[in-house]
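Q: I'm writing a short explainer about Drug/metabolite transporter (DMT)-like permease for a general audience and would like to include a description of its predicted shape. Could you first generate the structure from this sequence?
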Amino acid sequence: MPTDRRSAGTYELLFVIGIIAISFSSIFVRWSSADVAVIAMYRLYLTNLLMLPLVWRYRHEWMRLQLRQWGLLIASGVMLALHFLLWMASLRLTTVASSTVILTLEPVFVMLASYVLFRTRVNRMMLIGIGIAMVGSIIIGSGDFALSGDALVGDLLSMLGALAVAIHMMLGKHLRKDMSAFVYNFSVFALAATSLAVYNLVRGIPFFGYEAKEWGVFLLLAIVPTLFGHYLFNWLLKFMNTAAVSMSVLGEPVIASVLAWMLLGEALTIYQLGAGMLILFGVWLFIRHGDKE
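A: Of course. Here's the predicted structure. Afterward I'll give you a sentence or two in plain language.
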């Protein structure tokens, strides 16, 4: 934890930068016309390429990994790949606002799974927060269904993507007890990208032949939301409270919706605005009253 105001201010600034960075993810995906599985694959492979210069430094840690740890790393990578596949597909069917706000249900899914598997304590305010967030999700779904059946499918894909990343996060939390952030992230990114490569190979999706603009989008996704977003949050966990870092999920849909309005011309409907506020408030209550680590 930071011990002085200057350090705290630096970490808070980096936290804001991270929220802005991850908010660009949905915009970059919309800018690409490539298959979502290709976008996700190259996003992760290019992130690994950028991290490559530091790999040698951690070689001894990789050599000490046990078979069980590799099994959990593979499971975490597959779940991350599934998350990207489902969530990016949702952006082709529904709006940025609906897709990103539904993703904020991730910590709710994590707690529900923790309760079922480990009997983690859930207090009354957390249950109220879960209820409010779920009501908001139902309202978004009903509003989008009134507009388009495809939009509702997109909402469902985003929710399944949130469930997949929740499993990924639970596995990561367990693995990170005995593993550095670099080794965990590099391994999972590589395994997720390889899972997507196998998926593309089976489906016959081409690996090459994309325009320079597409490669630019792949690289932007690797640098901005991945390194300056997700990786930065993992690093900040060493200096900030976990609950505070978890609040980043509340900032992404707000900034992403504004960016979508500015850069994509998307407008918010009354359903999305009202339901989005309900979801964000419910998730805020849930995180605010959750157990502190």
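A: For your explainer, you could say: Residues 5-288 form one domain.
Q: Perfect, that's easy to follow.
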